[in-house]
Amino acid sequence: MMRRTGFDPGRADGTQLLSSVANTWDRALADMKEQAFSRLQDELQKAHQELKLRDEEVTRLSRIREEVESELEELTASLFQEAHNMVREANVRQAAAEKAFKESQMQVEVLVAEVAALKTLVLTSTPSRPNPHLHPQIDPNRAKDDASISGVSLFTRKHRRSPSHFNLKYGRENSPPESPVKECRTSLPEPVISDSKDGYEVSEGQKTS
């Protein structure tokens, strides 16, 4: 009959097996954790890289947007200035055109009035009674004025008075002062004729002469 001791070889083998399995499991878990951590680190690094690229893209797009907005503002200001200049030039041209139109209209009115006056003169002029305004040569007042003006000018330029002119104008008795005819007439007595029965009687002045 065998004697039992406290050592059990089967039980010892089971304990060792469980210990090795536990160690293997722990190593496997550690490896899995390490792999998962490494994978997460890679993903995080990739995410950071993508975020950095996106930030750079956003910065570039923001700069492009600012440039486009600035160019748009400049273009808008230029368009407004050009439109303002065009409106101002159009107003100036319109004012000049209106002024020219008014002046031409006034000239047309003056010409129409002159034509109407000429028509009136033509209609009032007949062969029997011609209008002096249309025929200045038949105007008697104008002819007299021209004749008087020409006669006076001709007389003042060419006519000279002779001594006989004074004799004809004043007579031999009324000769102008300092005239030889007047001096001769004053020295001679005038004859006196009176009526008598025997005929004509001569004055004493004539007898003595």
Q: What can you tell me about this protein's structure?
A:
There is one protein chain. With 209 residues, this protein is an all-alpha fold. Helix content is 75%, strand content 3%. The chain has helices spanning 9-124, 140-158, 163-170, 180-187, 204-208, and strands at 193-195, 200-202. It has a two-stranded antiparallel sheet with strand order 1-2. The longest helix is centred in the N-terminal third of the chain and has 116 residues, at 9-124. The protein starts with 8 loop residues before the first helix and ends with a helix. Residues 166-176, 179-184 and 191-209 have low confidence and may be disordered. This is (California timema) hypothetical protein. Belongs to the SEC2 family. Pfam families: Sec2p. Residues 23-107 form the GDP/GTP exchange factor Sec2 N-terminal domain.
Keywords:
guanyl-nucleotide exchange factor activity, 5 helices, disordered C terminus, mainly alpha, Sec2_N, single chain, two-stranded antiparallel ribbon
- What's the overall average pLDDT, rounded? 72
| Number of helices in the DSSP assignment | 5
Q: What structural category do the secondary elements indicate?
A: mainly alpha
Q: Rg, please?
A: 75 Å
Helix content: over 70%
- Strand and helix order: HHHHEEH
